[in-house]
Specification:
The structure is a single chain. This protein has 134 residues and is mainly α. It has a two-stranded antiparallel sheet with strand order 1-2. Helix 2 runs antiparallel to helix 4. 68% of the residues lie in helices and 10% in strands. The two termini are 27 Å apart.
Amino acid sequence: MSTVADKLAKKSSSRTSEKQVRLRLVYVDFWSAVKLSFLAAVALAIVNVVAVFLIYMVLQTTGLLGKLDEFFVAFTDGSFSIASFLSLPQVMAFAAIVSILNLIVVTVLGAVVAGIYNVMVKVTGGLLVGYTSN
């Protein structure tokens, strides 16, 4: 019983000339690096906010936040309550602020890494990458 994969394997078994190309990466465009790092930072920010929400909901559902609040109320004679600081809107606001700061830092780091690479290319000659066609 012959499958499509077997037929393609037989066709590709004929010897083709493999051409190898060696290219050198000598420049990383600044704005391309900024755009790419910004998109990566947006993805990380979304993951961060969703992760904080899920962790908060798990802690709330299992009752760990309630037990922690009881511990602090008993430990501080009722003068300090975690529940007043760890409500869902406050936790999500904190997660959003951290995500925005992370977005700025990752975007700037992407630009800095591109600049450092472009400077280091002048010393090292660039990154040698090999490609082959099968």
